[in-house]
Design brief:
Mean pLDDT of chain B: 91
CATH architecture of chain A: 3-Layer(aba) Sandwich
Helix content of chain B: 40-55%
Shape of chain A: globular
Helix content of chain A: 25-40%
CATH topology of one domain in chain B: Alpha-Beta Plaits
CATH class of chain A: Alpha Beta
Oligomer: heterodimer
Radius of gyration of chain A: 19 Å
Order of helices and strands of chain A: HEHEHEHHEEEHEEEHHEEHHE
Distance between the termini of chain B: 86 Å
Strand content of chain B: 5-15%
Shape of chain B: elongated
CATH superfamily of chain A: LarA, N-terminal domain
Structural class of chain B: mainly alpha
Radius of gyration of chain B: 28 Å
Number of domains of chain A: 1
Low-confidence stretches of chain B: 513-530
Structural class of chain A: alpha/beta
Number of helices of chain A: 10
Largest interface: A-B, 30 and 36 residues
CATH architecture of one domain in chain B: 2-Layer Sandwich
Distance between the termini of chain A: 65 Å
Strand content of chain A: 15-25%
Number of strands of chain B: 8
CATH topology of chain A: Rossmann fold
Number of strands of chain A: 12
Low-confidence stretches of chain A: none
Strand order of the largest sheet of chain B: 1-2
CATH class of one domain in chain B: Alpha Beta
């Protein structure tokens, strides 16, 4: 390539940056809502690795969700620079157990990421999640930081409050998206559970979401709908959420909840805090939009 | 071609080694995955005798962090300015550039005395409490130029090359380019793109120092470097010297090509204090007569500075601090000037900070930025925290770890988490739950203290449509706020944040405005009224 040609290429590409704004259009086929009663599985146990696989049994095991050759995204909460026992982030053992199951089910790749609130390296490191996954030594498992280039503007066709927002490409393209939030207190939303955990895969000024949070969260979840939600309630944060910091705010429950219905999972997790599902606006609004079931009586709850 | 291993080869190897070490330490001045940085990444400042001299003079205290400078002092007393010739990364940079642009070693008029004048001014003024070393110390210039300008620029250029390929080139091409980019990201590139105030100024100063090389070899080291001047004075006592002590008559070899212009043109004597032991004259000597060995100090020539000049420089060194003392700027409150966590009280901070830029380099949120004239010219390039650019990460203690002089104290994590940088103040005219009756409390969500300094009350307000709505309105508990600025940083309003961190520091001990106390009482009063 000669100099002239090179300069021309550079000019063409850099003008491309200014002009092009690619828009991904995702048609959410899911809002047709699932027919039948959602299965919700709850288990307790001290060994979190075996707890995760036993909780998944009533749902048909991981194989019901992850097919051989799938590109899987596992989305924990790594939002804060906190240690696992402080209950602000998903427990690393839970994350690792889910990733291991996905690999065993034949996943081609398993990506684990979160757009953090505190500095990303500190969050990944001190949550224990990065070292737990790097320790697996499996090249199919990728625990990478968010790459800003991968946020793609998406038109939210079913959105009632949001019509457009940018989403993380890998989350949009996943064959199987597994949401593994930690259950904790939150000042504005009251609790942060599965639906709120979706905020970790969106771009832009996330503070703006807070203006009409419940509807906004429901709208976001019409684009990214988790195939499987596993709520980490091994320890829950009762106060000073979503960051906590003091062990006095933490209650140990050794519980894990799983469901293919994200609203059902959130609704059940709410009861662990002594609230009713309808007290959490985001659950109520999501159920109203047809994202899932919030009535505990209409769920097939299996205790394992 | 077989190259003979000469003394000069050893010198070059040493230069390359220390230059590489310098760059390596620069890159390692970052979060490593551990709370503590395991290497002495700031060693180039801590062994700098000029930094030590000015800090000790300005604070009149012993600073243990700076003990490594005794090593360079000892080295110089034994071997002369070997530091300038063999170790100094700035000298190596200049040698490299000089080679590239084919500089002449000759210089029209000798400006050698300028560096002694600078040294005298810097040392005297530091004794009287004004710290000027940061404007002239070679490592301060180098690290600042790299941190604030060249390193972010380097990352911008590299990502600017790979990003368009990733976004717009065909898939096969980005499949080739991305692995290369990843390798670069994991090795030579910084973790992420940073942005700095004074990026142009800092880089221009560094480039100007390098560009002086066009005038003559090692122009900076010969004429301007105050560290070089200090080492020159020390090396007058040194024991490792060139023999013969003068250049041979009629031989035009060593004296005209000396990179330090160390030979006196009239007497042909070597000015030993100007020699940086590059050993070119040994390796190039046609008669094989020139060599270095140990001998007792024997200085035939006086140092290149007259008594009159020395007294003049000393007077300037006294006048500058006095002028600063009568500057009214020093008596004004600076509410938006936040110092890093662990920063010493303002007067001590000014005495100790050598404007090295290490804290700004290491700050993982890009929050620490250089001052321009916000704290007077005296405070130019001192660090300040600008929350809207980046906030202070609650669990991070890195800036105190890399500060070479203790201007920012090294704090333990619990001490850092209670260190008060400033205090947040709400602007209720703009804050959404107050001004627009719209839910928000993003500040409360991010507030990191264990008992949150930002709390909210649940209120029912009548909005502009006349509807009663339930809302959570935030308020601050001053005793809990440490001023980390995450609230100001994350406030979703465009432009200025509706919550701002204000400094409660006083600019001097006899600050009559008592700014800090004033703000606190005002806020407490406001709260008890409302």
């Amino acid at each position: 390539m000669d100099r002239r040609n090179f300069l021309k290429q550079v000019a063409v590409w850099s003008s491309g940056i200014l002009l092009a704004e690619p828009v991904f259009r995702i048609t959410p086929d899911l809002l047709a809502a699932e027919t039948g009663t959602p299965i919700l599985s709850v288990g307790t146990g001290k060994n979190y690795t075996s707890l995760v696989s036993s909780v998944l049994q009533p749902l048909g095991g991981i194989a019901a969700f992850v097919k051989p050759g799938d590109h899987v995204v596992v989305k924990p909460n790594i939002g804060w620079d906190r240690r696992p026992e402080q209950a602000a982030t998903t427990h690393p053992e839970i994350v690792r157990a889910v990733v291991e199951l996905a690999i065993m089910a034949g996943a081609k790749t398993v990506q684990v990421f979160d757009r953090t609130c505190n500095e990303e390296r500190r969050c990944y490191m001190n949550s224990g999640i990065k070292s737990a996954l790097d320790g697996m030594g499996n090249s199919k498992v990728q625990c990478n930081y968010i790459d800003q280039r991968k946020f793609i503007p998406v038109t939210i066709e079913k959105g009632l409050s949001l019509s457009k927002w940018s989403f993380y490409k890998d989350a949009l393209q996943a064959d199987c998206y597994i949401n593994i939030p930690v259950a904790k207190h939150h000042g504005l939303a009251r609790l942060t559970l599965g639906l709120k955990n979706t905020m970790g895969v969106i771009g832009g000024n996330r503070g703006k979401i807070h203006g009409n949070m419940s509807q906004n969260l429901a709208d976001l979840n019409t684009v990214i709908r988790a195939d499987l939600t596993i709520i980490d309630a091994t320890r829950i944060l009762l106060r000073n959420g979503p960051q906590g910091g003091s062990l006095k705010d933490v209650k140990i429950l050794d519980t894990v909840i799983a469901s293919a219905d994200p609203v059902a999972a959130d609704a059940y997790a709410t009861t662990l805090f002594g609230f009713k599902p309808e007290q959490i606006d985001s659950t109520r609004v999501a159920a109203k939009m047809g994202l899932g079931e919030m009535d505990l009586n209409k769920m097939d709850i299996r205790m394992v | 071609m077989a190259t003979k291993v000469t003394l000069r080869t050893c010198r070059k190897l040493s230069q390359v080694l220390f230059f590489f070490l310098f760059l390596l330490f620069f890159r390692l001045t970052d979060y490593s995955g551990l709370d503590e940085i395991p290497y002495a990444v700031n060693i180039f400042f801590r062994w700098d005798p000029l930094v030590t001299a000015t800090v000790v003079l300005a604070t009149k205290t012993f600073v243990a962090l700076l003990l490594p400078s005794l090593f360079i002092i000892a080295l110089t007393i034994i071997f002369g300015r070997v530091f300038c010739g063999w170790l100094c990364p700035m000298g190596t940079l200049l040698d490299g550039v000089g080679k590239l642009i084919q500089t002449s070693p000759r210089q029209g008029r000798s400006l050698r005395s300028v560096k002694y004048i600078l040294l005298a001014v810097i040392l005297t003024s530091s004794l009287f409490g004004l710290q000027l070393v940061g404007f002239f110390d070679p490592f301060s210039l180098l690290v600042r130029g790299l941190t604030l300008g060249l390193d972010p620029l380097f990352n911008l250029l590299v990502s600017g090359f790979f990003d368009p390929i990733y976004r717009y080139a065909p898939q096969w091409l980005s499949n080739l380019s991305e692995p290369i980019y990843t390798v670069l990201q994991n090795s030579v590139l910084p973790h992420k793109q940073s942005f700095f105030l004074l990026s142009t100024l800092s880089t221009t100063i560094l480039i100007a120092v390098v560009a002086l090389e066009k005038l003559a070899k090692r122009f900076w080291c010969r004429n301007l470097c105050p560290l070089g001047a200090l080492l020159a004075i020390l090396s007058r006592f040194s024991l490792f010297r060139r023999f013969p002590g003068l250049s041979c008559k009629d031989c035009q070899h060593c004296a005209p090509s000396c990179r330090m212009d160390a030979f006196d043109p009239k007497s042909r004597q070597v000015r030993h204090e100007e020699c940086n032991l590059c050993l070119d004259c040994v390796d190039n000597c046609v008669k094989q007569a020139s060599r270095f060995h140990f001998a007792l100090p024997d200085n035939r020539l006086q140092i290149d500075m007259s008594r009159r000049t020395f007294i003049g420089a000393g007077l300037a060194g006294i006048t500058l601090p006095l002028l600063s003392q009568v500057n009214a700027g020093g008596r004004l409150p600076r509410p938006t000037l936040l110092r890093p966590p662990g920063a010493a009280p303002e007067a001590e901070f000014f005495s100790k900070c050598v404007r090295c830029g290490e804290c700004m380099k290491v700050c993982i949120q890009n929050a620490l930025q250089p001052c321009f004239l916000e704290s007077g010219y005296e405070g130019m390039f001192t660090p300040r925290l600008i929350p809207r650019i980046g906030y202070c990460e609650f669990n991070c203690t890195l800036c105190g770890q890399v500060c070479p002089t203790g201007a920012i104290h090294k704090l333990s994590q619990p001490a850092k988490q209670t260190f008060v940088i400033g205090m947040a103040v709400f602007d209720k005219e703009r804050c959404l739950p107050f001004a627009a009756h719209s839910p928000c409390i993003v500040c409360e969500e991010h507030c990191p203290t264990h008992d949150k300094a930002i709390k909210f009350k649940e209120v029912t307000v009548i909005n502009h449509k006349g509807e009663a709505i339930d809302l959570r309105q935030p308020y601050l508990i001053p005793e809990l706020c440490i001023g980390c600025g995450i609230c100001e940083n994350k406030c979703p309003l465009p432009g200025h944040s509706a919550i701002r961190v204000l400094s409660s520091r006083t600019t001097s001990e006899d600050d009559e405005y008592g700014y800090g106390a004033h703000t606190q009482t005002t806020i407490i009063q406001q709260r008890s009224i409302s």
